[in-house]
Amino acid sequence: MNVVIQGAGRGIGLALANIAKKSEINHLFLTARDPIVAEGFKHLPPGPSITWLPLDNLIPSSIEKAGETILSEIDKLDRVICCSGVLRDEVIKPEKRLADIDASALTYAYQVNATGPILLAKALLPALRGNHRLQFAGISARVGSISDNQLGGWYSYRASKAAQNQLMRTLSIEMARYNPNACVATLHPGTVDTALSKPFQTHVPAGSLFKSEDSATMLWSVLDKLRPSETGGFYAYDGTSIPF
Ligand SMILES: NC(=O)c1ccc[n+]([C@@H]2O[C@H](COP(=O)([O-])OP(=O)(O)OC[C@H]3O[C@@H](n4cnc5c(N)ncnc54)[C@H](OP(=O)(O)O)[C@@H]3O)[C@@H](O)[C@H]2O)c1
Q: I need a surface site. Which of 7, 26, 175, 197 has the fewest CB within 10 A?
């Protein structure tokens, strides 16, 4: 099995990379913005079956370059999981109200949360084509569901995850022509104890906060079970369908 985990330096991506390592792996490609300083680099050092690549969603050429390196090493990919995401950092913070909207923060969220998976798909296309079983997944978020939005707020995060869902749904339709055994999906990991959710954990009901290892185990199992007929869907960690 050849696997790519984009955003494997920490959090859910690192937990997924640990699971991938224990699976029947031929080659595991892992990315982070700066692999050498990433937590994951120490846990899963480079070796004959592990390659780390620098990739920043804000720099499309870094995605192209990572794709070129991957394609130079393997002919086909069996699973690709795009894990990168941002909710709050030095550039954006989740908006509570309309007055908090900032044009550059909206664009930034879109660049990090939506463009990464689709640009990676473009860069990896030759290894996705064929007749082999393939799961191509983007880690999205339930708050990206438009029909499920009852609370409002978090404009940039919600909109960028909704955009990721649409980009992946559109990819699923084209990918069916290139590989009839492909399944393209977006996944909601649950509320997971990582740096991303840390500032927002106060109101999470007891027992509802997953460890990243537990969320990753469930997501990996969802991907194991997804069939080509289920391509284009948005699925939660327990395999249930989430409406767009
Ligand atoms: N935690 C939750 O409760 C929760 C809930 C719903 C959805 N999610 C989604 O799950 C995914 C993983 O998040 P997490 O909880 O594991 O958060 P995390 O620990 O904060 O990890 C964030 C990841 O995003 C990457 N990233 C950030 N900016 C990037 C950029 N410009 N280019 C490329 N990669 C970038 C980071 O890479 P570096 O190592 O290079 O910084 C890191 O791998 C995200 O898509 C998030 O939206 C999380």
A: 26
Q: Are 132 and 78 in contact (CB under 8 A)?
A: yes
Q: What is the pLDDT of residues 149-176, one digit of tens each?
A: 999 999 999 999 999 999 999 999 999 9
- Cα 216 to ligand 1 centroid, rounded to whole Å: 13
CA 86–ligand 1 middle distance (angstroms): 6
The fold for domain 2-236 equals Rossmann fold (3.40.50)
Q: Using alpha carbons, select from 170, 157, 73 the residue that is nearest to residue 118.
A: 170
pTM given for the model = 0.98
12 lines ligand 1 (CB under 6 A): yes
pLDDT category of residue 207 using cuts at 50, 70 and 90 = confident
Answer whether 3 contacts ligand 1 (Cβ < 6 A): no
